[in-house]
Amino acid sequence: MALANGTSQTKFSPDAAFTTAQALTAAANIHSVYNGKTVRAAGAGEAWYLPYAEYCVKNGIVKAGQFTAYDAPITRGDMAIVFANILPAEEYAAVRDGSNPDVTSNLACYAAVQKLYNAGIVGGDAGTGNYRPNDGIKRSEACVIFTRIAIAEMRAK
What we know:
The chain is mostly helical. 34% of the residues lie in helices and 0% in strands.
C-alpha cells in the first residue's frame, strides 16, 4: 500500500502543501487495505484523484460535494474531518486526555480533532498546543498523521 506518492518521479516535496486530492487518496488507501477493498484505476481522460474521491464518498469517509477544489490545499481542520472517518471508531481508542486550546466546540472540525487528539494521532504546536485548524498542512506533517492512523504503535501517548 502506498500511503503517499511523490509529486513527480523524482521528488516527494515534503514542504509542499497537502491537497484535498492527496488527503482523499491517503484516506482511501488506508480504508481499502483495512477493509480488503480496492480503489479502481482512473480512466482515460479522468483526473487521477477521481477514483479516490468517489471511493471516499461511497465508503462514508466524506460526503458528496464536501470538497470541490481537489487540487487546493486542504486545511488542517478539514483534513481532521477526513482522517477521523477512515477507520471504525474502536480504532481511534483514546490513549490520552486533553485538547488543543484553539479548537473550540463551535468549530465544524471540533469532534474530529478531539477524536484524533485523544487517540494520539494529532497534537499541537510546541509551546502553545494549538492545532491551527484554518491553516494548511505540509505534506510531511500529513504523513506523520496518516502514519499514526495506519500504525497504532506510532501514536503519541
